[in-house]
Amino acid sequence: MDFSKFNKIIEGKTKVIYENPNDPDTVFMLFKDDITAGDGVKHDILEGKAQVDWQTNRDIFEYLNRCGVRTHYVSSPEDKVSIVKKLERKINLEVVSRRVAAGSILKWGTGAAEGDRYEPVITQFHYKDDPLHDPMLDDTYIEYMIAAKNSIEYSEARRINAEVFQHLERAFAAFGVQLIDFKLEYGMIKGEVVLIDEITGGSFRLWPFKTDKPNMNQANVLSELDPAGRLDKDVYRMGGDLGAVRDKFGAIAAITARFKELDV
């Protein structure tokens, strides 16, 4: 497609959204080779990333659609391009769910140790604002908004996040990898809260299992996992060279390409 002929709606750090002149209810989502971290402070061009992200996103959303999750994804008509449903409005939140303690939660003074397992999965809401470093919203406030204001944006995003986590945790586990945590985004379409944006190597943490039969029913599961073999964007955040980052993202795409083999 020649996107120079299409109207650009918005360009973000990793994607560009264009109007679909043939269907006003959908838009084109074009993936870019850019990779960022630290709320956009760290930025590089990783050749081939757009293709790999597009493949990973396609395979994950097609799997979630098969699972009955309410998403914006429609199809992927050509390399690096997806068609998604047009939003009535975007919900300006990042919704994070965690199974295993890792990353920033270890620095918040909660007493969490790396590898602590959460059962059930915990979900936190962050206001999406890079200059403010995506501040987290208080759980008491979230509960108040749900109970007193009937804010379906919070209740439905929390429900869908937990549902998606269970689907993807099971899918990755089938290929020897534990889903540690992820952050997803939501929008409103026809009055409903819908999973939107992308799900790629920058969306989650993935740590391989150390053995074929890990015991994941422990208070702390670090001994069952291999964080040094991580397959996610932490490799980039921690200063890994771009070639290593490319290899990790390629390994993720190789796994998600097999999601079509899974029953739902």
Brief overview:
By secondary structure, this protein is of the alpha+beta class. It is built from 5 helices and 12 strands.
Essential attributes:
single chain; about 260 residues; alpha+beta; Phosphorylase Kinase, domain 1; D-amino Acid Aminotransferase, Chain A, domain 1; 2 domains; 5-stranded antiparallel sheet; 5 helices; about 25% helix
Task: Break the fold down into its secondary structure elements and pairings.
Blueprint: E1 8-11, E2 15-19, E3 26-31, E4 34-37, E5 42-45, H1 49-66, E6 73-78, E7 81-85, E8 89-100, E9 117-127, H2 139-149, H3 152-173, E10 177-189, E11 192-196, E12 204-208, H4 234-237, H5 242-256
Antiparallel strand pairs: 1-2, 2-3, 3-7, 4-5, 6-7, 8-9, 8-10, 10-11, 10-12
Question: Would you mind describing this structure in some detail?
Answer:
The protein folds into 2 domains: 3-85, 2-Layer Sandwich (Phosphorylase Kinase, domain 1); 89-242, D-amino Acid Aminotransferase, Chain A, domain 1, CATH 3.30.470.20. A hairpin with a 2-residue loop joins strand 6 (73-78) and strand 7. It has a 5-stranded antiparallel β-sheet with strand order 1-2-3-7-6, covered by helices on one side. The chain has helices spanning 49-66, 139-149, 152-173, 234-237, 242-256; strands spanning 8-11, 15-19, 26-31, 34-37, 42-45, 73-78, 81-85, 89-100, 117-127, 177-189, 192-196, 204-208. With 264 residues, it is an alpha+beta fold. Helix 1 (49-66) packs parallel to helix 5. The two termini are 33 Å apart.
